[in-house]
């Protein structure tokens, strides 16, 4: 990493973007061996929020009979109001461009307040059913609150909660493990099409936000969710027995791959590029298998067994080369 930074600084100097005096000052600063604890401190703050909210959940679970439902809800509501009171008091208000709190702790106070709000609404619905049997509303309300907090306080962590809630509202569980194990795309075509439509909706919102300059730095978060949702739903349906269905999803995956290939360069996002390649590779192999599944290869199966290791090794080499070339292009 240090060699990369030195080379980057040298490139800036050779291109005339910095003076010789600035070049020497940068070298002298780096030779001091100083480093920032900003990322580590933020990680501890994030873990603190998770432990705090998890602790409240465990406290509720273990003392539900002794504390009482009204008391638990009242305590949750008080903590939520305190969190948001301080956040609104010290925030700069809603702004279309990227903003930050003067103190980073308040950013995690927003996250804590939002998670507790989700717990409060979920517990309220479970115990008293204010939304009746419309459990979707119990998901939609905290989702709306999360979107409001994400845009008002400019908080990416809360935005991920909001998008996850939106996906849950349409019947999805947006984590890679749950998408693969809990959601039966094969049995429910409606769920598959809903997943693709949600992904497209996230993409369209990203394009619209970029056009009106509304929190454009949120774009990578929306696109990351869209990439995973569309790609996994498409790959899951490539094994469908209905020819029309798997061909449709093959086209969807191809279009998704092309779009996210371009967006990964626009955002200079390594994460988008890597996952785009992985999904395209998996989908491409399944597609080839479906194309040739009715062809009899019994006479040359020994050749396939011989070439298979070379195919996978070659795939790994090409993957590494693509990543290196991408990194080189976005850093130049």
Task: Give a summary of the structure in a few sentences.
The protein is an all-alpha fold. It is built from 14 helices and no strands.
Per DSSP E runs of 2 or more residues, the count of β-strands stands at 0
Strand content: under 5%
Q: What is the count of structural domains?
A: 3
**How far is it from the N-terminal to the C-terminal residue, by CA?**
16 Å
Radius of gyration: 25 Å
> Ranges with pLDDT <50 over ≥5 residues?
173-177
The total count of helices amounts to 14
Give the helix/strand class: mainly alpha
Largest sheet descriptor: none
> What gross morphology would you assign?
globular
Summarize the helix and strand pattern as letters. Answer: HHHHHHHHHHHHHH
Fraction of helical residues:
over 70%
Average pLDDT works out at: 81
Task: Describe this structure as you would to a colleague.
Helix 3 packs parallel to helix 6 and helix 13 runs antiparallel to helix 14. The protein folds into three domains: 1-35; 36-169, no CATH class; 179-295. It is globular, with a radius of gyration of 25 Å. It has 14 helices and no strands. 25% of the residues are buried. It has 332 residues and is mostly helical.
Label this structure with key terms.
DUF2157 domain-containing protein; 78% helix; transmembrane helix; DUF2157; mainly alpha; membrane; single chain; 332 residues
């Amino acid at each position: 990493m240090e060699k990369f930074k030195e080379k980057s600084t040298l490139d800036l100097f050779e291109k005339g973007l910095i003076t010789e005096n600035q070049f020497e000052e940068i070298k002298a600063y780096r030779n001091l061996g100083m480093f920032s604890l900003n990322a580590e401190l933020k990680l501890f703050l994030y873990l603190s929020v998770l432990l705090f909210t998890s602790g409240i959940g465990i406290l509720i679970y273990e003392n539900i009979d002794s504390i009482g439902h009204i008391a638990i809800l009242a305590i949750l509501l008080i903590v939520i109001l305190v969190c948001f009171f301080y956040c609104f008091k010290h925030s700069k208000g809603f702004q279309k461009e990227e903003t930050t709190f003067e103190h980073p702790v308040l950013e995690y106070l927003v996250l804590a307040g939002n998670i507790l709000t989700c717990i409060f609404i979920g517990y309220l619905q479970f115990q008293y059913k204010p939304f009746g049997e419309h459990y979707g509303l119990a998901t939609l309300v905290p989702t709306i609150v999360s979107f409001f907090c994400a845009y008002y306080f400019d908080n990416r962590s809360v935005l991920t909660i909001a998008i996850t809630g939106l996906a849950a509202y349409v019947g999805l569980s947006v984590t890679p493990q749950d998408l693969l194990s809990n959601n039966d795309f094969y049995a429910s075509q409606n769920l598959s099409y809903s997943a693709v439509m949600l992904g497209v909706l996230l993409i369209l919102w990203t394009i619209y936000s970029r056009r009106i300059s509304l929190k454009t730095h949120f774009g990578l978060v929306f696109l990351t969710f869209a990439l995973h949702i569309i790609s996994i739903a498409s790959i899951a349906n490539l094994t469908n027995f209905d020819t029309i269905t798997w061909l449709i999803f093959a086209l969807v995956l191809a279009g998704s791959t092309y779009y996210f290939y371009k967006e990964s360069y626009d955002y200079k996002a390594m994460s988008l590029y890597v996952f785009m390649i992985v999904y395209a590779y998996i989908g491409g192999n399944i597609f080839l298998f479906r194309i040739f599944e009715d062809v009899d290869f019994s006479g040359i199966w020994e050749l396939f067994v011989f070439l298979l290791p070379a195919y996978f090794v070659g795939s790994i080499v090409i993957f590494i080369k693509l990543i290196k070339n991408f990194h080189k292009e976005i850093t130049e």
